[in-house]
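Encoded backbone
================
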Amino acid sequence: MDRSDGHPLAEVPLILVITFDGFEKSAKVCTGSDGSFTYAFEPTPGQYGEYKACAIYPDLMDRPVQGKFTIASAVKDRIGFSPASYQLTTCLRYERQIEIPVTAGSEASATNLGFVYEASDQEEETLPQGIHVDTDDPVPDLGPGETQTITITLWADNTAEENTDITLRLVSDEAPDIGWGELPIHIQTTDTGPVVTSDPSRIETGLALDQSVTETLTLKNMGFAPWLILPCLW
């Protein structure tokens, strides 16, 4: 903007800075012949709330708030879980546990929340032979915005197929029939080969700019054959 008369300036390079929850994203923009510009912003999935924005000259360090906008969650009244599907490799007759975090939206809550393993949810409407599932005790109460972890125990006996697909359904007192969603699990069994497990089964972490973080993941071979460890390339 021209300070002498207040009119927008044409063809001026700017830095658009968008801030959310203490983190910022920046993009180079340039004004058009009328002194305005447009920018299509794509938020990171799951980052809902108020954003602050400013357009500054490239050499400036200040971040004055020149505008605000809000991105609302479309699932604020839902119960979600992650991952949306799971692949499991296991030895026959060996129990495996998987942990599934469940999260309530900002306007959602649930009582007696847990996964069920029922024949009606399977592809052929019958429970696959040789697959045993313990869905753990339900979560008594999950409040708005809260996250809790549900542990599922699975094992396959000698009658199980080498590859089996099963489906679990997340239900609660509020949604006992349709439920909150289905969790497909692909199970591959072996009786002789290596079976690599990890503890924990998954790691969720994060860090800010110019920071570092260290996490520990323990790998074990629970099978009956050696596991060839290949070097990691970073």
In short: The chain has a mean pLDDT of 84. The longest strand covers residues 147-156.
